[in-house]
Amino acid sequence: MSVNTATNTFTRDDTSLTGTARALWDKLHTKEARIGVVGLGYVGLPLAVEYAGKGFSTTGIDLNQERVLRLNAGQNYIQDVETSNLTEAVEKGLFSAHDDFAACADIDVFFICVPTPVSPNKDPDTSYIEAASAEIAKHIRAGQLIILKSTTYPDTTEGLLQPILKKAAEEKGLMLGRDYFLAFSPERIDPGNEQFTTANTPVVVGGVTKACTELACMAMTQVVNLVNPVSSPKVAEMEKLLENIFRSVNIALVNELARLCDRMGGISIWEVVEAAATKPFGYMPFTPGPGIGGHCIPVDPYY
Fold first, then answer.
1. Per-residue model confidence as pLDDT tens digits over 138-190
2. What is the structure's pLDDT at 147?
3. Residue 226 lies in a domain
4. Is residue 210 located within the same domain as residue 66?
5. Catalytic-labelled residue, pool 104, 113, 217, 296
6. Can you name the residues that pair with 207 across neighbouring β-strands?
7. What's the rounded Cα separation, in Å, for the pair 186 and 179?
């Protein structure tokens, strides 16, 4: 695997991969690889449309039949997706949506972009990942790459997803890292952010084996400018939690300080934050607000 040591980013130079892995690399390089995205929400749909826009035949899978009908009619429901890009992809036959996995037999690269909520008892709910993995396992074959993008706890990829795939793969004589490939690359979508999109937001990739990492990096570089490989899925899973927990803690901290300033009187938290931001190192400004929100940040600490 070729990595720019100055930036620790993957580069698409020639590869030492052989056999099935090399064949998939070549299909990605020539855009012959067929892409499948499971879950067409705020993470999956932008990713699917991005691949279709790059010329890859892309299949989207979502159990919501209304979504599927709208997408196949070129109708968009995600703010971060340009409707014209979706419509063009549908009209060119580069994107189609389905509400089952029947169209998955010829998929080369699967992305799992399903929700990871918490239960009423605040326990991680990985049922969507398990269900998607079980369906993919039914169609597993040589030359497939599966990339989990849903935010989750460390060891989900290897401890939960991998055994589901392995059981089906072994029945077909397939070996992980030789015949099929598995990696984790956490989503970094910031809904409504016009500055940072799928293409210009760097991503992290951790594969179960070296070949898994290299192929997952190769897949991601088709639509993302900078890809940063790490040593394992666990590292990638943990860094995603760190990102969101860091944000959650600092939002809570500045809100606590805002209340303290209000109780003490005569201190503007806004002036305090602005003054602290003059320090050119070791500080990142956060401003008071309504608190944490969205799909990920409120639940990620429970993972």
1. 999 999 999 999 999 999 999 999 999 999 999 999 999 999 999 999 999 88
2. 99
3. yes
4. yes
5. 296
6. 183
7. 23
